[in-house]
Amino acid sequence: ISTSTSALRILLTDDDKLHCKVLRRQICVAAGGEQNVDLTVCHDGTEALQAYRESAQAFDIILTDFHMPQMSGPELAKSIALEGDARPRPKLVLLSGEAEVEPEVSALFDKLFTKPVDLDQLRKLIADNK
């Protein structure tokens, strides 16, 4: 969306393309406009891990769906943790259709957002990470 260096860098991963489209709009609204967000959208965990590895700049926030083919959200979070990256660790947010997840899964993430994602939750997340 934006390539401004002051824009918040967000990686969104969800295999549901309609959900990605809705979340993309919500993120832009929550950030106060497209110019405030540098958003990368992936449709599975392996694609997201590749985007994470190839990104020259660190992501500020990674939002990932729980259940995806090839690599789940928790598997993505574990892989990112094992990267041994010198860049700052991004906030990891799990998107789930379930209100509760197992403690060992929850421990991999900074936040859990239940689908559908609430716009106020996104606003707070973005404001806390500017």
Mean pLDDT: 92
Percentage of β-strand residues? 15-25%
Number of distinct beta strands? 5
Compute the number of helices: 5
Order of helices and strands: EHEHEHEHEH
Q: What order do the strands of the largest sheet run in, or round the barrel if closed?
A: 2-1-3-4-5
Strand count, sense and barrel status of the largest sheet are: 5 strands, parallel
Distance between the termini: 17 Å
Contiguous runs where pLDDT drops below 50 for at least 5 residues: none
Structural class: alpha/beta
Helix content range of the residues, please? 25-40%
In words, what does this structure look like?
The chain is of the alpha/beta class. Helices cover 36% and strands 21% of the residues. The protein is built from five helices and five strands. It has helices spanning 17-30, 45-54, 73-81, 103-106, 119-128, and strands at residues 8-13, 37-42, 61-65, 91-96, 111-114. It has a five-stranded parallel beta sheet with strand order 2-1-3-4-5, with helices on both faces. Helix 3 links the parallel strand 3 and strand 4. Helix 1 (17-30) crosses helix 5. The protein starts with 7 loop residues before the first strand and ends with a helix. The mean pLDDT is 92.
